[in-house]
Amino acid sequence: MNFKSPDWKRAADGNGHDENFGCKTCWLPCLLMLVTMFSGCSVTPRNPYDVRTALLDSAKKSEPNFPDGHELLLTHFSYLGRLVTSQGDVIYVVDQRGVVADQPAPHGQNFIAFFDRHFRYLGKISYVQSRPLWCEGSRLYLFGNLDGFPQSGQSFLPGGNVIDVARGYQSIRSYHAKVYGSSGGTDD
């Protein structure tokens, strides 16, 4: 097989072989292989800290009536997003559900739990079917109007499809807003 090309300047040994062919051409594939191995083959997370795990650890330690795994079983704990107050404080939002153990018909508790920027538990709001959907600014949008009750220390009345923490967690308010996907569908 002849690998000669008129473009290349090679010194042939008379037998059609280039004595420098192996040295000149093998370094490029080796270099490409090394670059590939050390640069793009591993995925490093951008944020190695897992927010959901930190929130779950905090809830287990500080949330009253957190599912104990015996009488009440945790079935759902999802990090929904973060809200930002008008003062710039971050409030993390979690959708949490548990079921009562050893019951013939499953029933349990649904909560929207709130945590501060240091993952400290702030409180929770119960709900029946008004599941939290998404966070936008200081507003948490629900599936329909809030049908649960605030926990002790909160004074707002349920009824709206938006929970707003613009004035902070202790000053939560709820109101109705016409937003597709949250307020009642296309009729609202």
Helix content: 10-25%
Strand content: 25-35%
Low-confidence stretches: 7-12, 35-46
- How far is the N terminus from the C terminus? 77 Å
Assembly type of the shown chains? single chain
Strand order of the main beta sheet, please? 1-2-3-4
Instruction: Please tell me the overall pLDDT.
Output: 78
Biggest sheet overview: 4 strands, antiparallel
Shape: globular
According to DSSP, the number of beta strands is 8
Structural class: alpha+beta
H/E element sequence? HHEEEEEEEE
Whole-number radius of gyration? Answer: 30 Å
Number of helices: 2
Description:
With 188 residues, the protein is an alpha+beta fold. It has helices spanning 21-39, 51-62; strands spanning 72-84, 90-100, 108-116, 121-126, 132-136, 139-142, 162-164, 173-175. Strands 1-2-3-4 form a 4-stranded antiparallel sheet. Strands 5-6-7-8 form a 4-stranded antiparallel sheet, with no helix packed on it. The longest helix has 19 residues, at 21-39. The N and C termini lie far apart (77 Å).
SSE inventory with pairings:
Elements: H1 21-39, H2 51-62, E1 72-84, E2 90-100, E3 108-116, E4 121-126, E5 132-136, E6 139-142, E7 162-164, E8 173-175
Antiparallel strand pairs: 1-2, 2-3, 3-4, 5-6, 6-7, 7-8
Brief summary of the model shown:
The protein has 188 residues and is an alpha+beta fold.
Task: Fill in the keyword field for this structure.
single chain; 188 residues; alpha+beta; four-stranded antiparallel β-sheet; globular
